[in-house]
Write a structure and sequence with these properties.
Blueprint (H helix, E strand, L loop, with lengths): L2 E7 L5 E7 L7 E11 L1 H8 L3 H4 L7 E2 L3 E9 L11 E4 L2 E2 L5 H4 L10 E2 L13 E5 L3 E3 L6 H4 L2 H17 L10 E5 L3 H12 L4 E6 L2 H10 L3 E4 L5 H9 L4 E6 L4 H6 L4 E9 L12 H6 L3 E4 L7 H9 L9 E6 L3 H10 L6 E5 L1
């Protein structure tokens, strides 16, 4: 029996680096050796048990974490036709059933039987030497795109989906050209959303957050201006930067119920809020009336499943490179230290990367 190393989580704070069997392949499955795997805030919240889904018993243990990965095809099932051994690939963060109406229509992100890779369900992730994925959920990396960038396709695709949904929801289908966009949250998704908003034609992109080092990184990555919310309110910051306290769209990536509740107050009538974060609790002072009276749209952003091809094209053309956001690297054997540094280095870390 062939074995591989994997970091298996048996419960909160009980992560074991161990030898496990290499997964078997079904006829449509692909075995990939993992080259890189990003450490996500969701990974950390599941590891510590702070994630609400853990407290509610919706996370199944034991499990292998890791959903931001890139690697190489090592073996293929008997019916695989789209991938061959040696292909460099990245994978979706959910595995759809492939048989329901939504899947057959191409809306695999809406499959009600989908299984999350390395997070909530029992589909094992990429904190391991190998991962098995159905071929329909793999994408070939362009020649010009390295494994570092490949492992960041997933958060980038989530950020792009947030910008796409905000644009789609703008009143009367208005173009993003010339618009003002506020991004709340200076983590990887927030910083990348600011970049995509700029690439989409926004005239002014302002990012708000609490960590000075991350805000500086955002300014170097595509944001036009920043608001440090530890010393200035969002409204005051917008007035200082734009000369007015309102924008056309808010990408809410902070996970702060306070910032989510206040987003409508900085939107012009007909604006949109795209929420792309976990909040872990119900906002206490969210004014639905403010949304109604000002014709404001609130849209949720669930995952990234349909955005991978667009992100990969932008990477291949040299338009989008997320690798400057990698702030630390760890050999796989140091996975415990990487997870510990998610808290210890919170003021400055953006993306932590495991190197297999």
């Amino acid at each position: 029996m062939r074995t591989m190393k994997a970091a298996r989580l048996y419960g909160p704070n009980d992560l074991r680096l161990m030898e496990v069997p290499v997964p078997d392949l079904g006829p449509h499955d692909v075995l990939c050796t993992v080259a890189r795997c990003g450490v996500c805030g969701t990974d950390h919240a599941i590891f510590t048990g702070e994630f609400s889904f853990v407290r509610e018993g919706r996370v199944k243990f034991p499990k292998t974490l890791g959903h931001e990965w890139a690697g190489t095809v090592a073996a293929v099932g008997s019916e695989v036709r789209q991938h061959t051994i040696g292909d460099r690939v990245v994978g979706d963060t959910s595995v759809a059933c492939g048989q329901c109406v939504e899947c057959l229509l191409g809306s695999v992100n809406r499959c009600r039987a989908s299984r999350s890779v390395g997070t909530v369900s029992d589909f094992d992730g990429a904190y391991a030497e190998c991962i098995v994925m159905p071929e329909r959920h793999l994408y070939r990396l362009p020649d010009a795109v390295g494994f570092d960038a490949g492992a960041m396709v997933e958060p980038a695709a989530t950020a792009l989906y947030a910008v796409h949904k905000a644009q789609t929801a703008l009143a009367n289908g208005e173009s993003a050209l010339g618009r003002a966009v506020l991004v709340q949250g200076s983590g990887p998704i927030g910083i990348m959303a600011a970049k995509f908003a700029k690439l989409s034609g926004a005239a002014n992109v302002v990012i708000a957050g609490r960590k000075a080092a991350k805000l500086r990184a955002a300014l170097g990555f595509g944001a036009d201006a920043a608001i440090d919310t530890t010393g200035e309110s969002v409204r005051d910051g917008l007035r200082r930067i734009l000369g007015r306290p309102v924008v056309d769209a808010v990408i809410e990536a902070s996970g702060s119920t306070e910032l989510l509740s206040g987003a409508a107050s900085v939107l012009r009538p007909g604006g949109v809020i795209a929420a792309v974060a976990f909040y872990e609790k119900v906002p206490e002072r969210f004014s639905v009336d403010e949304l109604v009276f000002n014709d404001i749209s609130l849209v949720g952003v669930a995952g990234s499943l349909m955005m991978y091809p667009a992100v990969l094209r932008l990477m291949a053309e040299g338009i989008f490179d997320p690798t400057p956001l990698i702030t630390a690297r760890y050999p796989f054997a140091d996975v415990h230290r990487a997870l510990a540094d998610m808290s210890a280095r919170n003021d400055s870390r953006i993306k932590l990367m495991l190197e297999m």
